[in-house]
Amino acid sequence: MAFARTILVISGTNRPGSNALRLARIVLGHYHNANAAAELFSLAELPPEIFHPSSYAARPDAFAPIQRRVLDAAGLHLIVPEYNGSFPGVLKYFIDMLKFPESFERRPVAFVGEANGVNGALRAVEQLQLVFAYRNAFVYPQRVFIPQVKTRFDADGRLTDPDIDQRLARQVAEFVEFVGKLRAES
Q: What is the pLDDT of residue 4?
Protein backbone atom coordinates (compact mmCIF):
# COMPACT_ATOMS: atom_id res chain seq x y z
CA MET A 1 0.00 0.00 0.00
CA ALA A 2 1.46 3.35 -1.01
CA PHE A 3 0.67 6.71 0.59
CA ALA A 4 0.31 10.14 -0.90
CA ARG A 5 2.30 11.21 2.15
CA THR A 6 5.46 9.61 3.44
CA ILE A 7 6.48 7.76 6.55
CA LEU A 8 9.32 9.64 8.22
CA VAL A 9 11.96 7.23 9.57
CA ILE A 10 13.85 9.04 12.35
CA SER A 11 17.29 8.01 13.54
CA GLY A 12 17.00 9.01 17.19
CA THR A 13 20.54 10.22 17.84
CA ASN A 14 23.03 12.64 16.38
CA ARG A 15 25.99 10.38 17.18
CA PRO A 16 28.22 9.93 14.09
CA GLY A 17 28.23 6.41 12.67
CA SER A 18 25.43 5.30 14.98
CA ASN A 19 23.77 1.92 14.93
CA ALA A 20 20.44 3.78 14.96
CA LEU A 21 21.30 5.34 11.59
CA ARG A 22 22.33 1.96 10.19
CA LEU A 23 19.03 0.47 11.32
CA ALA A 24 17.07 3.46 10.05
CA ARG A 25 18.52 2.86 6.58
CA ILE A 26 17.50 -0.80 6.78
CA VAL A 27 13.98 0.16 7.87
CA LEU A 28 13.83 2.70 5.02
CA GLY A 29 14.77 -0.10 2.60
CA HIS A 30 11.90 -2.21 3.92
CA TYR A 31 9.48 0.66 3.24
CA HIS A 32 10.76 0.90 -0.30
CA ASN A 33 10.40 -2.89 -0.71
CA ALA A 34 6.80 -2.54 0.51
CA ASN A 35 6.18 0.20 -2.10
CA ALA A 36 5.44 2.68 0.68
CA ALA A 37 6.73 6.24 0.46
CA ALA A 38 9.28 6.84 3.17
CA GLU A 39 12.21 9.10 3.85
CA LEU A 40 14.96 9.26 6.43
CA PHE A 41 15.70 12.00 8.92
CA SER A 42 18.72 11.74 11.20
CA LEU A 43 19.01 13.97 14.24
CA ALA A 44 22.56 14.62 13.01
CA GLU A 45 20.81 16.88 10.44
CA LEU A 46 19.53 19.25 13.13
CA PRO A 47 20.85 22.75 12.43
CA PRO A 48 23.37 23.90 15.06
CA GLU A 49 21.41 27.08 15.76
CA ILE A 50 18.52 25.02 17.14
CA PHE A 51 20.68 24.44 20.22
CA HIS A 52 20.91 28.14 21.08
CA PRO A 53 18.79 28.97 24.15
CA SER A 54 16.85 31.55 22.13
CA SER A 55 15.34 28.67 20.12
CA TYR A 56 12.80 28.05 22.86
CA ALA A 57 11.21 31.44 22.16
CA ALA A 58 11.64 31.47 18.37
CA ARG A 59 12.69 28.48 16.29
CA PRO A 60 15.44 29.34 13.83
CA ASP A 61 14.45 29.46 10.16
CA ALA A 62 16.68 26.45 9.48
CA PHE A 63 14.34 24.31 11.62
CA ALA A 64 11.21 25.11 9.59
CA PRO A 65 11.82 22.47 6.86
CA ILE A 66 12.32 19.81 9.55
CA GLN A 67 9.12 20.85 11.28
CA ARG A 68 7.31 20.68 7.92
CA ARG A 69 8.60 17.13 7.30
CA VAL A 70 7.12 16.00 10.62
CA LEU A 71 3.80 17.74 10.00
CA ASP A 72 3.55 16.34 6.47
CA ALA A 73 4.41 12.76 7.46
CA ALA A 74 1.71 10.10 7.35
CA GLY A 75 3.47 8.46 10.30
CA LEU A 76 6.75 8.40 12.20
CA HIS A 77 9.00 5.37 12.65
CA LEU A 78 11.59 6.04 15.35
CA ILE A 79 14.83 4.11 15.75
CA VAL A 80 15.71 4.61 19.40
CA PRO A 81 19.08 3.85 20.96
CA GLU A 82 19.36 3.42 24.70
CA TYR A 83 21.72 5.85 26.39
CA ASN A 84 22.18 5.53 30.15
CA GLY A 85 18.93 3.65 30.67
CA SER A 86 16.80 6.02 28.59
CA PHE A 87 16.53 7.57 25.14
CA PRO A 88 19.04 10.20 23.98
CA GLY A 89 18.68 13.74 25.27
CA VAL A 90 18.92 15.09 21.74
CA LEU A 91 15.78 13.12 20.85
CA LYS A 92 13.89 14.68 23.75
CA TYR A 93 15.15 18.11 22.73
CA PHE A 94 13.99 17.49 19.15
CA ILE A 95 10.54 16.56 20.45
CA ASP A 96 10.49 19.67 22.63
CA MET A 97 11.29 21.88 19.63
CA LEU A 98 8.39 20.55 17.53
CA LYS A 99 5.06 22.38 17.51
CA PHE A 100 2.61 21.39 20.21
CA PRO A 101 0.12 19.74 19.84
CA GLU A 102 -0.04 19.29 16.07
CA SER A 103 3.31 17.56 15.55
CA PHE A 104 2.14 14.29 17.11
CA GLU A 105 -1.59 14.72 17.65
CA ARG A 106 -3.30 11.64 16.12
CA ARG A 107 -0.10 10.75 14.23
CA PRO A 108 0.83 7.05 13.99
CA VAL A 109 4.22 6.25 15.53
CA ALA A 110 6.24 3.01 15.51
CA PHE A 111 9.37 2.19 17.50
CA VAL A 112 12.53 0.14 17.11
CA GLY A 113 14.80 -0.01 20.15
CA GLU A 114 18.47 -0.85 19.98
CA ALA A 115 21.11 -1.17 22.64
CA ASN A 116 24.39 -2.85 23.40
CA GLY A 117 22.77 -4.43 26.47
CA VAL A 118 20.51 -7.45 26.62
CA ASN A 119 17.16 -5.62 26.70
CA GLY A 120 17.40 -3.89 23.32
CA ALA A 121 16.34 -0.46 24.63
CA LEU A 122 13.11 -1.70 26.19
CA ARG A 123 13.27 1.02 28.89
CA ALA A 124 14.10 3.74 26.38
CA VAL A 125 11.20 2.84 24.09
CA GLU A 126 8.73 2.50 26.95
CA GLN A 127 9.74 5.91 28.30
CA LEU A 128 9.44 7.44 24.86
CA GLN A 129 6.02 5.85 24.35
CA LEU A 130 4.83 7.75 27.43
CA VAL A 131 5.95 11.02 25.83
CA PHE A 132 4.16 10.23 22.58
CA ALA A 133 1.03 9.06 24.41
CA TYR A 134 1.03 12.37 26.31
CA ARG A 135 1.20 14.14 22.94
CA ASN A 136 -1.83 12.07 21.73
CA ALA A 137 0.00 10.09 19.08
CA PHE A 138 -1.35 6.74 17.89
CA VAL A 139 1.33 4.42 19.26
CA TYR A 140 1.71 1.29 17.17
CA PRO A 141 1.94 -1.61 19.65
CA GLN A 142 4.33 -3.94 17.76
CA ARG A 143 7.83 -2.86 18.70
CA VAL A 144 11.15 -4.39 17.68
CA PHE A 145 13.93 -4.58 20.25
CA ILE A 146 17.49 -5.31 19.18
CA PRO A 147 19.82 -6.34 22.01
CA GLN A 148 23.61 -6.46 21.69
CA VAL A 149 23.26 -4.35 18.57
CA LYS A 150 26.98 -3.93 17.93
CA THR A 151 27.23 -7.68 17.24
CA ARG A 152 24.45 -7.54 14.59
CA PHE A 153 26.46 -5.90 11.79
CA ASP A 154 29.35 -7.03 9.61
CA ALA A 155 32.45 -4.91 8.97
CA ASP A 156 30.62 -3.07 6.17
CA GLY A 157 27.67 -2.15 8.42
CA ARG A 158 25.23 -4.68 6.96
CA LEU A 159 22.77 -6.42 9.26
CA THR A 160 23.80 -10.06 9.73
CA ASP A 161 20.84 -11.35 11.72
CA PRO A 162 18.08 -12.58 9.36
CA ASP A 163 15.59 -12.92 12.23
CA ILE A 164 15.94 -9.25 13.14
CA ASP A 165 15.73 -8.25 9.49
CA GLN A 166 12.54 -10.29 9.12
CA ARG A 167 11.02 -8.69 12.26
CA LEU A 168 11.84 -5.23 10.90
CA ALA A 169 10.26 -6.07 7.54
CA ARG A 170 7.13 -7.41 9.26
CA GLN A 171 6.89 -4.33 11.49
CA VAL A 172 7.14 -2.07 8.44
CA ALA A 173 4.47 -3.99 6.52
CA GLU A 174 2.11 -3.98 9.48
CA PHE A 175 2.76 -0.31 10.26
CA VAL A 176 1.93 0.58 6.65
CA GLU A 177 -1.39 -1.19 7.11
CA PHE A 178 -1.96 0.54 10.49
CA VAL A 179 -1.29 3.98 8.99
CA GLY A 180 -3.54 3.21 6.04
CA LYS A 181 -6.44 2.20 8.29
CA LEU A 182 -6.05 5.31 10.44
CA ARG A 183 -5.93 7.55 7.37
CA ALA A 184 -9.04 5.86 5.96
CA GLU A 185 -10.91 6.57 9.22
CA SER A 186 -9.99 10.24 9.35
A: 57
